[in-house]
């Protein structure tokens, strides 16, 4: 009778696949920092459970049949995600990891992203379940799930929440799997699992104290962001003059704690004809990365409802912190600008939480501009000399960067007039005509002129298009097309972007723009502070450009780190594979007392014969099994079996003698037992193909 392997019986048979499914499912739940909603369960649960059922049903069938059924199960599991069959399924699986690396967490639970989690959990559950069903390994079935958990850690490193409880649950489940596979009595589960839980709890406490927990590696830091794209066919800055011609058109409403400017678009690139956005929008589930300002802020909550606002830009008070209610939301981490995936329909609403910076007077007075050649670039042309000359005249005597900005703001507000009938456009030629001839314009001309003049002074600037608070009615601000306004911003070190309003008040009309009025009043007060002690303020800093605006990268490449880590892991595995059997044999050979060395020789022989862990078998049982293999073997195999039989029965007699009269065992008996065991080992190695020996060694059999 031939015995290939032991099959678990009783309650252990269904318990093993159930534990493997649980391990894969818990590893998949590690993605909760990427997808915090319940949609994650739809991707994880079917992928973890189905392969376990397939393995249980096909454990005595060929492996190819089980794998074929598993592929069908994987495909069926994607139907609930996509609400049907998806032709781009394989492309989504291939591209989803890159999409997640360029997504600001939390990610939206889109099917084309969740399919990656579904596939990883399915692969871990399939490999684990088949390994459990077809080998005698203890915890090797959990290794694929551990790899999935590692991927979840990397992709969710900057997400909210913690994965330490997930790690603790994995530890407990793997310990339970090891106890199950070791054929221990059920009482071991009652003792072993609480012990594993205690160790897991200790890890929960100690984990956050490890140095790597403070600054974990984030693969998003090295991911290639999507290139800047033109958002709408018509720039919001180009709409300013047109909106002012029809000032009563309803655009949107805002329910907010207080009146603020509602910024729409941020434009930071200028080619001499028009301002455009260099934003690198990234998908997000609602979180907006923090800006440069880390000081005092005021939290303002808004609910925005669309009426007739065109395009896909989403208005909000600066700086957005969290957005909800927008499907396909994208955000530019640098500016905080928001973008919808599709043009919002009338009646569409969403909620925004914004942090409004409140720097102190001292922080404003000490502000110094950042060094960014891209934000001080001026297009080639004869107009640059005009802009520089006028800027220098306007800021004459100002010895601090923010004082220069305030002087420039005051210069434009007092030397030109606001006129909604002024010609639109912001090309260099048009702005030259505005400065030298008409001296009349809308906020389009004032804001763009301020930004360009600031750049000639080395102040990094950009243009923002947005709206005044609007008409208040019952806590709701009704924003119309006539409330549109452009303003400029300058970026200061640690302070971030600060707004400036060079557009003068509209003559003959009541100005309901409280935000601008407060900002102008604040700037006038600060200018008074400069007059009292300007000599102590920091001087203008004009760092030299490097030519491309890029800073040299530092640190090793993440691919190099991954390659080194993989190499170290392979070397470590190889060392374990080589050293563990040698160490086990050496320990048995040098055991205390001749009786223990005889038993060690017998256990070593059982291992060599493929009966590892079955030391409870009697010597006669081992001989009977070996004789069965001899009768069913080929000629060459039978010849080597005869050699094994020559030494196996004498060794069995010595081991039986030890079992019944251990005190009478001599050193000569121990030496003879190991000589027999070594001879059997050589015969087994001779009859066993090299590939089989390598497989057994890799599986630590």
TrEMBL record:
Transmembrane portions of the chain: 40-57, 64-82, 113-132, 139-157, 163-180, 187-210, 559-583
InterPro entries, sorted: Bact_TGase-like (IPR052901), Papain-like_cys_pep_sf (IPR038765), TgpA_N (IPR021878), Transglutaminase-like (IPR002931)
Keyword terms, alphabetized: Membrane, Transmembrane, Transmembrane helix
Name of one Pfam family that matches: TgpA_N
Protein name in the entry: DUF3488 and transglutaminase-like domain-containing protein
Entry keyword Mitochondrion: no
Domain Transglutaminase-like: 435-504
Domain of life: Bacteria
Chain intervals for the UniProt region annotation (Disordered): 523-555
SMART domains membership: TGc
Claim: Transmembrane is one of the keywords in the record: yes
Organism name: Nonomuraea marmarensis
């Amino acid at each position: 009778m031939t015995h290939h392997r032991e099959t678990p019986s009783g309650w252990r048979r269904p318990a093993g696949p159930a534990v493997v499914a649980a391990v894969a499912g818990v590893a998949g739940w590690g993605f909760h920092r990427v997808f915090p909603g319940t949609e994650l369960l739809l991707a994880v649960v079917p992928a973890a459970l189905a392969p376990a059922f397939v393995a249980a049903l096909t454990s005595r069938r060929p492996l190819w049949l089980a794998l074929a059924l598993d592929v069908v199960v994987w495909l069926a599991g994607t139907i609930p995600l996509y609400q049907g069959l998806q032709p781009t399924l394989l492309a989504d699986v291939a591209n989803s990891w890159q999409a997640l690396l360029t997504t600001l967490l939390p990610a939206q639970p889109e099917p084309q992203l969740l399919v990656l989690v579904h596939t990883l959990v399915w692969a871990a559950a399939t490999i684990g379940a088949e390994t459990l069903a077809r080998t005698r390994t203890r915890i090797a079935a959990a290794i694929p799930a551990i790899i999935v958990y590692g991927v979840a850690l990397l992709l969710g490193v900057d997400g909210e929440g913690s994965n330490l409880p997930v790690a603790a649950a994995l530890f407990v489940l793997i310990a339970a799997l090891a106890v199950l596979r070791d054929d221990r009595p059920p009482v071991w589960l009652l003792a072993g699992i609480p012990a594993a839980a205690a160790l897991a709890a200790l890890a929960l406490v100690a984990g956050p104290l490890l140095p790597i927990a403070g600054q974990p590696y984030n693969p998003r830091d090295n991911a290639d962001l999507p290139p800047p794209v033109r958002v709408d066919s018509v720039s919001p800055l180009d709409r300013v003059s047109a909106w002012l011609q029809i000032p009563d058109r309803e655009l949107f409403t805002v329910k907010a704690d207080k009146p603020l400017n509602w910024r729409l678009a941020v434009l930071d690139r200028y080619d001499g004809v028009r301002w455009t956005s260099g934003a690198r929008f990234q998908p997000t589930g609602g979180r907006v990365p923090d800006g440069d300002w880390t000081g005092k802020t005021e939290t303002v909550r808004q609910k925005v409802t669309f009426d007739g606002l065109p395009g896909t830009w989403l208005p909000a008070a600066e700086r957005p912190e969290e957005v909800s209610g927008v499907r396909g939301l994208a955000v530019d981490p640098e500016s905080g600008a928001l973008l919808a995936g599709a043009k919002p329909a009338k009646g569409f609403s969403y909620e925004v939480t914004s942090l409004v910076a409140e720097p102190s007077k001292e922080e404003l007075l000490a502000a110094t501009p950042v060094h960014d050649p891209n934000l001080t670039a001026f297009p080639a042309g004869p107009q640059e000399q005009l802009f520089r000359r006028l800027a220098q005249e306007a800021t004459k005597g100002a010895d601090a960067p923010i004082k220069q900005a305030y002087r420039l703001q005051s210069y434009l507000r007092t030397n030109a007039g606001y006129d909604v009938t002024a010609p639109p456009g912001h090309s260099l030629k048009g702005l030259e005509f505005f400065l030298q001839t008409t001296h009349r314009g809308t906020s389009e001309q004032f804001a763009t002129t301020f930004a360009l003049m600031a750049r000639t002074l080395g102040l990094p600037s950009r243009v923002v298009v947005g709206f005044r608070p609007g008409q208040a009615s019952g806590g709701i601000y009704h924003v119309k097309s006539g409330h549109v306004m452009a303003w400029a911003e300058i970026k200061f070190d640690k302070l971030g972007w600060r707004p400036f309003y060079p557009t003068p008040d509209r003559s003959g009309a009541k100005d309901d723009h409280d935000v601008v009025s407060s900002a102008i009043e604040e700037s006038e007060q600060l200018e008074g502070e400069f007059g009292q002690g300007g000599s102590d303020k920091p001087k203008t800093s004009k760092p030299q450009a490097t030519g491309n605006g890029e800073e040299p990268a530092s640190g090793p490449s993440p691919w190099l780190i991954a390659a080194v880590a993989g190499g170290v892991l392979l070397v470590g595995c190889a060392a374990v594979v080589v050293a563990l059997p040698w160490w086990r044999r050496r320990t048995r050979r040098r055991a205390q007392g001749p009786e223990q060395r005889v038993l060690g020789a017998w256990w070593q022989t059982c291992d060599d014969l493929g009966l590892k862990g079955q030391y409870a078998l009697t010597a006669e049982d081992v001989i009977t099994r070996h004789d069965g293999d001899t009768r069913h073997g080929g000629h060459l195999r039978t010849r080597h079996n005869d050699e094994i039989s020559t030494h196996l029965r004498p060794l069995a007699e010595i081991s039986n003698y030890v079992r019944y009269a251990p005190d009478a065992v001599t050193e000569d008996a121990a030496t003879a037992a190991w000589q027999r065991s070594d001879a059997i080992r050589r015969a087994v190695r001779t009859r066993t193909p090299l590939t089989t020996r390598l497989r057994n060694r890799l599986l630590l059999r």
